[in-house]
Amino acid sequence: MSLSILQKGIDMGMSQEEVLVKQIWDIYDSISMLASLKPSMEVNKLFSQLVFTCIPPNPIDVAKMCSDAQDMRAKLIRLCGEAEGLLESHFSALLASHGNPIEHLALFPYYDNYVKLGLLEYNLLSEHLGGRSPARVAFLGSGPLPLTSIVLAKHHLPSSLFHNYDIDPAANAMALRLVLPDPDLSGRMFFHTGDVMELTHPLRDYDVVFLAALVGLDAEAKARVVEHLARHMAPGAVLMLRSAHGARAFLYPVVDPGSLRGFEVLSVFHPTDEVINSVVVARRSLSCGHPPAGIELGHGPVVLPCKCSDLPAFNPLGHSGMMEELTLEEQAS
């Protein structure tokens, strides 16, 4: 938000939060009138404007907005999700036109953000797995351009197997074309078509499960997905969720750490730089009689710190962000 717009709104007696909501509402009105959300100069301009408006830290709590603003935000998140899917499909097709698509990933305009987010998530995961690499990783909602899996597999987890799930067979076909020419990734990345809510027994095979931000577009849908994962993931396995904080919650759904029943929340990290998504790290609760540590994952015993452990607050990206370590009392409240 520009200082001039903010000052003008304040001069009119509006709070900083009211100015922000008005500005986002204006952008939403423009986006909702677009004939198509496929990549174009107008679409790119409006969504860039939206992102730049939402990035600066803002104390707004979207859960406390009026019902009309809540309705606008829900519709805006759906529009963002549709536009993101079309953008990824466009660039997946473009990348597939190259002999080895993996060598040209930087053509995607937000690739650097995925690199930074991948580093953030890897460092958080590594901290809670005691530095050990998981043998099998699942990514739910991988889409036509599975950059998170690719970045993690290429740069951080060179021995892990990645199983990518998406409900859209066309998206999986596009994603597969990207990795087939790469001799390493083609042997470690697999793609499955199906609804996450119908995925049961295979979930027990994964040491780590990533849940895409746009799987479950509202609190109720997200809660149903998490409840399903809690029933079917292996005890001790780690769940990586993407959330949003402050004004960034106009772009992506918010995951309430206190709502993750069946999981122990290990940490929450809110970036304050150009990385949009917050990251929530949780562990599938242990069954009765299981030891609290030393859970057997893919590479031998891995000590998983409990949610009330004395982990130091650290900056996984080496720059701006806020880390929360949740205690038992905070989760119970």
TrEMBL record:
Pfam families registered for this protein in UniProt: NAS
Matches recorded under SUPFAM superfamilies: S-adenosyl-L-methionine-dependent methyltransferases
Organism of provenance: Colocasia esculenta (Wild taro)
Reactions this protein catalyses: 3 S-adenosyl-L-methionine = nicotianamine + 3 S-methyl-5'-thioadenosine + 3 H(+)
Designated name of the protein: Nicotianamine synthase
Enzyme class (EC, first level): transferase
InterPro entries linked to this entry: Nicotian_synth, SAM-dependent_MTases_sf
GO molecular function, one term: nicotianamine synthase activity
Similarity comment text for this entry: Belongs to the nicotianamine synthase (NAS)-like family.
Assigned EC number: 2.5.1.43
Purpose of the protein: Synthesizes nicotianamine, a polyamine which serves as a sensor for the physiological iron status within the plant, and/or might be involved in the transport of iron.
Keyword terms: S-adenosyl-L-methionine, Transferase
GO biological process, one term: nicotianamine biosynthetic process
